[in-house]
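Work through this protein:
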Amino acid sequence: MRPIKTRYYLIGFAVFLILKNILTSNAEWVERFYTHGFYAVYLRLITACTNLFPFSLGDVLYFLVGLFLLWKIRHLWKKNRETKKRIRAYVGLLLKGCVVFYVAFNLFWGFNNYRIPLATQLDLQQGYTKQELLELTQIMIQQTNALQLAITQDSLQAVVLPSNKDQIRQDAQLGMHTLSESTQWFTYGSQKAKGSLYSLPLTYMGFSGYVNPFTLEAQVNTKIPTSTLIVTSSHEIAHQVGYAKESEANFIGFLAAKKQEDIRYQYSANIFALRYCLKALESEETESDFKVLLEEIHPGVHTNLIENTLFWHSYKTVTNSIFKFIYSNFLKINNQKEGIRSYNKFIDLLIHYNKKEPVFTGSF
């Protein structure tokens, strides 16, 4: 059987782009025909298959694809003796690979980037003032301090979450199920987070996890601190159920952790949100005002706030910045115009949702 020529791949790619632009020109079409149509069916089918295995089929798939590419590169080298032919063959392989990846990525998961925004679905305002952010942060500090004291009985002591990371990932399923039942925003089946086989490389790349866009498995970096694992696991499951935008997955992941009965998980959700708010305020408040705000936080809470930062700094390398740059531009290509900064739109969702359905109150 003769291989398909590169030009046919490019013709097919052009046709796909035309169809993609037609579908994504209307977010309601994406919502109806893709997210709640094709994607919902594919998610149920693929989840039924992948849940049969305790390990990630997607990670194994990536390994096999890597082996195939190495074999293909070697095969083309031996087949083509002239330099020009080799270059032409490798360029053709690269183009074919990019076309297959792009089409499969969008078809099996990526079109979710073009859904109706969650803020629109929930009828939330967009944009917030510095005062709104400050008020929410102060209330959040009060509640987080209260939770920390209730758990440890000592304002100086940091909260320690369960060391069993498998159990935390399982508990994330319960939080997502509870959120699904209480809000009816999405249909939760039996999606779950799995530990990635590539956790160490992910750590050096600076990623807590990801969703495999082909097998739709939620991959969680098993190296990250347990204090962040419940939100991260919920975040990746949120990607699974169709929330492609990082800010929306952050919001869903936070709420799912906040819905947990275990107050240590609720505390972990607070730490996650508080870290974002403090980072946003740090650039807006004067040094003295920000210092006063930090002094309101219990020392034990401080320890938990910086735990995640210290962990990532211990693995930070030049490759971390390179992969973050690549990923930021990848998000921009996929309708997340702020790139990696789209994570910060989580605060926008949180502020306005808290006004509508209070998550944080002035007392514990």
Observations:
- The chain has two domains: 6-114, 120-356.
- The CA atoms of residues 6 and 156 lie 64 Å apart.
- The longest helix spans residues 83-108.
- DSSP finds 15 helices and three strands in the chain.
